[in-house]
Design goal:
Elements lengths: L1 H18 L5 H6 L3 H14 L6 H50 L2 H18 L6 H25 L1 H4 L17 H22 L2 H21 L6 H21 L8 H20 L1 H7 L4 H4 L4 H13 L1 H9 L5 H23 L3 H24 L5 H5 L4 H23 L5 H7 L14
Helix pairs in contact: 5-6, 5-10, 5-17, 6-8, 6-9, 6-10, 8-9, 9-10, 10-11, 11-14, 11-15, 11-17, 14-16, 15-16, 16-17
Length: about 425
Amino acid sequence: MWRTSISLSLKRLNHLSYLNPNPFSSLQKRSPSFDTIHGGFSSFSHLYSSTIPKSYDSTKLDLGLRRFSQLGISSAATVDVSSTLSRDLVGAFSHYGRCYWELSKAKLSMLVVATTGTGYVLGSGQIIDLAGLCWTCAGTMMVAASASSLNQVFEVKNDAKMKRTMQRPLPSGRLTVLNAVAWAFIVGIAGTGLLACKANALAAGLGASNLLLYAFIYTPMKQLHPVNTWVGAVVGAIPPLLGWAAASGEISLNGMILPAALYFWQLPHFMALAYLCRDDYAAGGYRMISLTDTSGRRTALVALRNCLYLIPVGYLAYEWGLTSGWFCLESSLLTLAIGGTAMSFYLNRTTKNAKRMFLASLVYLPVFMSGLMFHRLYNNWQATQTVPSSRFMQESDYADNEKQLRKTSSSKQGRPPVAYASVAPFPFLPAPSYSHY
């Protein structure tokens, strides 16, 4: 009896194994406690080990367990590969993002964007085109990043000799020169095209000219002559003029206020920096005025003289109708403050006084630009700039036609009232002559 039941059980197991060689794969998918079930199966197989043939037990059961183990190993390997790949992608993105951020001198480029935005606001009328402002700032940021990248490409050997710059992406080897050139080319073309499409051709021309002036004239001149500082001041004065041109479409006398202030401001700022970093500049091979000025007197005198040049800028902004009279007073007080630090540095040429003048220059510029925007006046000619060209042409044509009609009507001589009385009742009489009137 028991032999018959065992034979029937074996036939049923053979039939099930033929249909599904791995009967525990479904349990693996359904329940996480497959190990418990597998342990139960082990006890079951041990119980009937004396009756079930060993050949069946060793082939069917081992095949199912082997497939299960292979499936677990392959899934674990897939998870490990995907996690490693994601970590590598995040690491590469972080690495190159940081490298391009430093290559573009992002902090300096954002200062350039701030001066451009201020010039755009000053050149606008009562209503500021926010979309145009954003497009202009984005294009300026790209052009400034391109210029800074080319600057580091040309100065990679010099930067490797200076403590202040040897950790930049190119001298440290974190980025190749080819990548830097490609980046500068792409963002430079994109920024100039963005200014041309979203602003105007004048703004795009100023941006492209400033890029060429900074990368191909100012950068090599730093190793040739101390006049490079004045050339660099011109480069720094162009961005606010670019913003003014993007907003108004022209360059006017009022638009030169902020560029002039930036030009004179840069000289005490860079003279303090040249004095503080004169040993580093000498190691890098840059010809600054502080290298030949051992006493520092000429460096301090240049800084003081250009601080004095800033005094009439506030008065001119008020006189030319760009700001109110309060800005004239505030600008004068601000200029006297930075001039006081320059005078202190001139009288006592120490590192402490040079740092004080450098910090004063950092405070001066944002306060000056904030005062310009706060006290700016809305001129009538600026308001007319916002009228579309088609509408302006229609209004001008209408005015011309009206003037022509008035001129034609005034040239004709009017007939006296008696003429109508003489002709209408007596049509058979000859028409009178009014030449004597």
